[in-house]
Specification:
With 219 residues, this protein is α+β, with helices and mostly antiparallel strands. 19% of the residues lie in helices and 32% in strands. The protein has two domains: 10-165, Immunoglobulin-like, CATH 2.60.40; 181-212.
Length: 219
């Protein structure tokens, strides 16, 4: 989501985005479910390069790149700046999401000698009806892909290779030459007149020089 909470598929490097995981409203209405997310990975579209953004305990591996999740109603949310891998425009996010009955207990994480909470850990099992324990068994992997562009990418080879953005095919390009202006016509006429005058002057000088030369008298 962008800053206006709109779903986006194409963004630019550095755009501020919200990574949001929501419980379907029908499930939330049936039981007071909570959710937690862990083992989240960002990977290049070709899957050759990947980067774990949330570890197996539910803590962010580098909060400066991708902070931990916070609760927002029945959803989890993390605000980050769009990034990409050098060899790929597409970035795929994958997360392991699990339901728990009631609010999930946040994970206690540490970064740069500081502790903070991230909603990425399941709630501790609680006793229900004696010694029995009860927890949600729903476990799923979710994924989402976004296209991350840099400034000027619209003019580069990516768009030339993408058929959906090939604006050159099946189109006729007409080149219209501009009409000459009055000033340009006048300048051209003056130039031609000067060239003709120079040519006449050259011929005149040549014949005058030849005429003034003394003629040889043959005895």
């Amino acid at each position: 989501l962008d800053t206006r909470q709109r779903e986006v598929e194409t963004v630019r490097i550095g755009d501020r985005l919200n990574f949001r995981i929501e419980i379907p409203e029908d499930n939330f209405a049936q039981a007071p479910y909570g959710i937690f997310a862990r083992s989240c990975v960002a990977m290049a579209k070709d899957a050759r390069t990947s980067f774990k953004i949330i570890d197996d305990d539910g803590c962010p591996t580098d909060p400066t790149i991708f902070p931990g999740f916070t609760a927002d109603g029945n959803a989890l949310q993390s605000t980050y700046e769009a990034f990409r891998f050098t060899e790929s425009y597409g970035v795929i996010f994958q997360c392991n999401v699990k339901y728990c009955l009631g609010p999930c207990e946040p994970a206690v994480c540490e970064w740069n000698m500081e502790s903070f909470e991230s909603l990425g850990r399941r709630r501790r099992r609680r006793a229900v009806e004696g010694n029995e324990t009860k927890e949600a068994d729903d476990d799923m992997n979710i994924s989402q892909e976004i296209l991350v562009l840099d400034f000027g990418d619209e003019k580069r080879e990516f768009f030339k290779a993408d058929p959906s953005t090939d604006f050159a095919k099946d189109k006729t390009v007409t080149i219209i030459e501009p009409c000459p202006t009055k000033t340009s016509v006048l300048a051209l006429a003056v130039t031609c007149a000067l060239m003709i005058l120079l040519y006449i002057s050259t011929l005149f000088c040549y014949y005058m020089k030849k005429w003034m030369q003394p003629h040889k008298i043959v005895a």
